[in-house]
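Quick start: read one record
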Amino acid sequence: MKRLILSIIAAGLFSTCHAATNSCQEQKDDISRKLAVAKEGGDSYAERRLETALSKVNTWCTEGQQSNKAGNEVREKERKVKKAELELEEAQDDLAEAQQDGRASKIRDKTRKIEEKKLKLESAKEELEEAKSDYQRLN
């Protein structure tokens, strides 16, 4: 039972750290909720880990730092979108060449690649919108 609770808490900490850029207060609130669950479950190991995490957030986290992190995340996602757009253009060029050759198997392969690149681009755009939303929320 304790291992299950610890696994749930650890997964929650991991997802919080990597899913979005949160304000310091949001991080404190999240850790505090998880700490309460660990205390209720009698998981002293998780309690110690969460108390350490809370102490680190209290000591080191600043809203300016989180805002900068969110801005960096937006720039990274913008680069990812640009790269996906270029890859899609290349795939479209490859399809045009395959169509000139007239080989059906090559055309099918290049068409499939275009669909994959479109999905990748759409995913990159969604990630960019999430990053922008985080940035706006923190500023």
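Confidence is low (pLDDT under 50) at residues 13-19.
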